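User: Hello! I'm new to structural biology and keep hearing that structure can be predicted from sequence alone. Could you demonstrate with FAD-dependent oxidoreductase? Please show me the input and the output so I can see what each looks like.

Assistant: Of course. The first part below is the input, the amino acid sequence of FAD-dependent oxidoreductase. The second part is the output, the predicted structure written as tokens.
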Amino acid sequence: MEEHDIIIVGAGPAGLTAGIYAGREGLKAMIIDKGVKGGNANMAPVIANFPGYKSIPGLELLKNIGNQAEKYIYIREYEEIVEIQKKTDTITLKTDKDNYRTKSLIICSGTTYRKLGVPGEDKYIGKGISYCSICDGMLFKGRDVLVIGGGNSAVTHALHLKDIGVNVKIVHRRDELRAQKYLQDKLHEVGIPIIWNSVVKEIKGDIFLKSVIVHNRETDVDEELEVSGLFLAVGEKPNSDIASNMGVNVDEMGYIITDKNQKTNITNVYAAGDITGGVKQLVVACGEGAVAAVNAYEELKIVE
């Protein structure tokens, strides 16, 4: 069984930054991710608030961070953690490929995109339904699509789709958006229509998505809209089940509770990034990853 000083769960912005800091301290450290490095941030069409860049696609930024991390730490992609156990001073991780032991653990497992939970949704994921405009947007150039949601992600996706020549509208369940003001201003500037007080009730098609039933919550009227694509941005669910099963405290929403040093209630177990809730921004995730790694290193030095 491989032994490590620090194992980091998740290769998103927080996990990669933690890896850079842990690796630079000369620790035997490793990152494990059930998917590809970069996490959800890979799907951000444009990032315009990360220091050092006026504007950069999420995929490019995370590739840069990932390449830097790989200079200092080994990253195991497509390996899913099945169970984590804490026994005295040792933490054991069981994955679908191997078993590992570590002195410290940093959980940066992030979040999973929420679904709408309506008929037809599962059938058309990848066949008209997408969570990533930068990945799939060009497939819909010149075609009609809807973006579902009212936060920063929804508006950012809509703006990107408009920019590449997609005919896009936003569907939002309320009468005002939650997105930051500068995004809303840009939205109005480019003239993207918004279908207010409405929700998707059903998704229809044959092999591919063809139309959606949109329900107006104010008028109680259903309308079928012919569209080729649906981009979902309706929130995220924290990936904290493995952590809570090992005894890590989470809040009522399922986000891991930490102190200012990113420590959880369990000794030598830290958490960073979107999994901790709060302000979900790339720069915050990176900062929390750095804080977690530095404090994990300091704790290991004290023990030695």
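User: So the tokens describe the shape?

Assistant: Right, they're a compact way of writing down the 3D structure. Reading them back into a model, for example: The chain is about 25% helix and 30% strand.
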